[in-house]
Amino acid sequence: MIRILISTVVLSFAFATQAQNVEFKSSNFKDDKEGLKKATTALKEGDAYFDLANEALFLVKSPGLNYELALKKYEIAQKVNSKNGELNFKIGVCYMNSPYSQKGIQYLLDAKKLDPECDPFMDFYYGRALQLNNKFNEAIKAFEAFEANYRKADNFNKFVSKHKRECKAARGATQNPIRAWVDNVSEINTPFNDYAPSVSTDGGELIFTSDRPNSHSPNEAGSYDKDIYSSSLESRKWNSPKSLKGGVNTPDDEISNNLSYDGTKMLLHRTVDGQIDIFESKLNGFNWTDPSVLPFQISSKRANEVYGAYSEDGWSIYFGRDNANRSNGFEIMYSSMQSKIQKNYMAAQMISSVNSKFNEGPIYIMLDGQTMYIASEGGDSYGGYDIFVSYRGQGTWSKPVNMGYPINTPYDDFFFSSTANGKYAYIASNRAEGQGGYDIYKVTFWGEEKKPATVTEDYLLASIVNPIKDNSIESTVDVNKKSFTVFKGKTIDAMTKKAVEAQIEITDNSSGKLIETFTTNSATGKFIITLASGKNYGIAVKAKGYLFHSENFDIPKGSADNLVNKVIELKNIAVGSKIALRNIFFDTGKSTLRSLSNTELDRLVKLMKDVPTLKIEISGHTDNTGSAKLNNSLSQDRAQAVVNYLKGKGITAGRMTAQGYGSTKPIASNNSSDGRQQNRRTEFEIKGN
Question: Structural domains in the chain?
Answer without folding.
Answer: 20-175 (1.25.40.10), 185-445 (2.120.10.30), 484-570 (2.60.40.2190), 578-688 (3.30.1330.60)
